[in-house]
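Tutorial handout. Part one gives the primary structure; part two gives the three-dimensional structure as tokens.
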Amino acid sequence: MKYFLALCFLFPLTLLADVTTSCQSTLSGITVRADLSDICYTQEGDDFLQWQGYWDGTTDKYFTSVTGWQQSLNAMATETDWRLPTIKELQLLTTKTLVDVTNLVPDAFAENWMLQQWFTRDASGVQLMPVANAYLLSSSYQGDNGSGTSKVYALNVSTGLIEALTSSDFDSKSVYMVKVKQSSPAWLNITTQYSGTAGHCLQHDDSLSSVIKVATCNNSVHQKWLIESNTGFIRSYSGGCLQAKSFSNYADTTYETCSNYLTSVSPTDSDRWDAVLEGSDKLFRSQSSSSYYFYVTSGSGIGNTKGEVLLWNYSPVSTDDQNTWYY
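Part two.
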């Protein structure tokens, strides 16, 4: 698929959770449905789930509604490897907080920018999914014990609450599906090309606000990263992101909580980066202050420790291999 959505996690290493984010789909901040990422991930500990909407069309990503549970089961039977999520799995996609039920935006996904765009209006203002009585269907159900009142559990798109619907007829409700399967994103080792630490992996410590550095590659989860071209995050398997503490020479880069996605054309916060090519060199340039790149230190400078990853104003970009990387 052309576009992918990676779903993430929280922090620190022992507190991984279920915050949504996106990758490999470049957006200007305006909701153009063809550009929306169509693959998502959630993480709990070392367990990953991959998600996709049950689209009316794969290009524009409009949800197809279903009128009964059997219809949904029949539809999923033709989907290789995919299945309906359990109600517990569906809850991984929400903020798990009671929200304003009168709001016309699917607030249950307020922290999950890309997912919210799946369910909300398009760029012209047309509402794609009705908010009142709109649901995401699960595979979890309550048997009828012969009474003919079998119920299936669904997630209210607006509130994030779990409700039981009559399985044979969804009445006037708008019921939609998301598909799920066991799968993990492709994690990268980002290594420095600098001769003094050539081939060393980008690494963070367990604790938030610890300084990013490079170290001998050892297959640690602290050295697994995801470069999200959609959000600009350089995200760790452990859940946090590489962030610039300030925009000045010798400024630290640290391991921090990933910021929420911004819908402005030019995101201004300090943990969003562009992975760019300068000739044969791969560089990481700040989206907030485009003349700044991060680099690995040689040990000289203002109190530098060799192998720390700091910020520097390269304008134009130097040929110094301290700011070039493999990934």
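Part three, for discussion. The radius of gyration is 22 Å. The first strand starts at residue 40 and ends at 44.
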